[in-house]
Amino acid sequence: MSFPKLVSAVAKLLGKKSPNDVPHRIYGTVVTQARKSAFYKDYNIPDTVMGRYDMLALHVFLLNYHLKSTSSNDSNDSIELSQSVFDVFLTDLERGLRELGFADASVYKRKKRLARSYYALIEEFDPPLTDLDAKTLALAVANRYFDKLNKKQAAVAGSKLADYMLSVVSSLSQQPLKAIMSGKLDWPQLAGEKS
Q: Does residue 14 belong to any structural domain of this protein?
């Protein structure tokens, strides 16, 4: 028996998910996309711990927005995948906080604060995305991510990131749900990114 098969068999016996299961694979694509240097070079996102968290949370949101919008009454599979990816995200947040050196008591409080920030993001971005309202979305994005820039710079940066978000929604809607449910997810290119 090969080592990966042995790990998978032991994980099943212990009731734990294999690290190669669909939510982990999908979350891996989220992390890869959120870490693209174009966000920090061309989109005015600060290359800081919080800036990177913001991009990670944004991509988890965009994926979950898509999965929830594609769920049907007869199948909750996409909702379950959405929740599973979110659970992996929370586990990753906790691991990251520990790696940054936060103590146990502090990890829980910070994780809770970051989760609240994620839920606020849903309230801010869900309505304009649902209405495909680029102007309102750009304003919400500018207020959330670019409040330290002057008004004109914030408007330009907000519009650019909002356009990217709308391109993600469009791109995900064109991908077969069956492929996503099997762990295959393709994110669109960022403006200015080389292929």
A: no
